[in-house]
Design brief:
10 helices; GPAT/DHAPAT C-terminal domain-containing protein; GPAT/DHAPAT_C; mainly alpha; disordered C terminus
Length: 251
């Protein structure tokens, strides 16, 4: 309600849990099943490619509403990623604009990003999180997340963090060819990422999606050898280096 006036959420009013469970089973019978003790679970098969496709459906379904929370969530995500030390207003705003541009093809914003972004949105969102006590303002010049709300903050930021880390994983792949055709380039990247696919790692699954690879490469205007490629990878590495190191070791 603080960031949009154009959405409405429908929720069963009677016997909510059972109604929702039955609705999910009816609409997404290929995704969910009910166990003997009446618990809802995913139809995992043990085949990593089949299971990856199943998990990808969940990513796609949730992606239909993420754009409503994207821009305000970026501010929390940046502060969360820099939780060890306070972050300055200028650096926070720089990373905020960076994430807006990075995900220009991934999420539907209220207006398409330009080089001259309106800072009124940034100040509005930052002010909201400070009032909500999710972010602590230090002398009105540096900011940090409030550790008391770490769980709530993670609930808001985790989907966007997964996309950011998936993009980083894509950008870390070496392009073995000089291919400039986007369709062929997507296949090259996807083949490389599928050979390292780990269905227990949601970021690995997300990075293997042709749609996500396409959006990540379109951000670079298809040219993966440009300075923009190096700059994007470096900025993402600055934000998310610890997880990236673990992923490289695991994959």
């Amino acid at each position: 309600e603080h960031f949009s006036s154009h959405y409405q959420i429908s929720w069963p009013v009677e016997n909510e849990r059972n109604c929702l469970k039955q609705r999910l089973l009816t609409i997404y019978s290929d995704v969910f099943e009910c166990t003997e003790n009446n618990h809802l679970t995913l139809k995992m098969t043990g085949d990593r490619f089949v299971d990856a496709a199943l998990l990808m459906k969940l990513f796609i379904y949730r992606n239909t509403c993420l754009h409503l929370f994207a821009k305000p969530a970026y501010i929390l995500l940046i502060c969360q990623a820099n939780s060890q030390v306070p972050i300055s207003y200028e650096q926070l705003r720089m990373y905020y604009h960076f994430l807006i541009q990075l995900f220009a093809y991934e999420f539907v914003y209220d207006r398409f990003p330009t080089d001259d972004l309106n800072d009124k949105d940034f100040d509005q969102y930052l002010s909201h999180w400070i009032k909500a006590n999710y972010i602590i303002s230090l002398n009105n010049s540096t900011y940090k997340v409030n550790s008391q709300f770490r769980q709530q903050i993670s609930l808001i930021t985790s989907p966007f963090e997964q996309y950011a880390r998936a993009y980083l994983l894509i950008y870390e792949q070496e392009n073995p060819s000089s291919e400039t055709n986007l369709s062929l380039l997507i296949k090259i990247y996807q083949k490389a990422l599928l050979t390292k696919l780990d269905t227990t790692n949601l970021i690995s699954v997300l990075a293997s999606s042709s749609n996500v690879i396409s959006n990540a490469l379109r951000t670079l205007n298809f040219n993966t050898k440009s300075k923009a490629y190096v700059d994007l990878r470096q900025l993402l590495t600055n934000l998310f280096q610890p997880m990236s190191t673990q992923l490289r070791a695991k994959l």
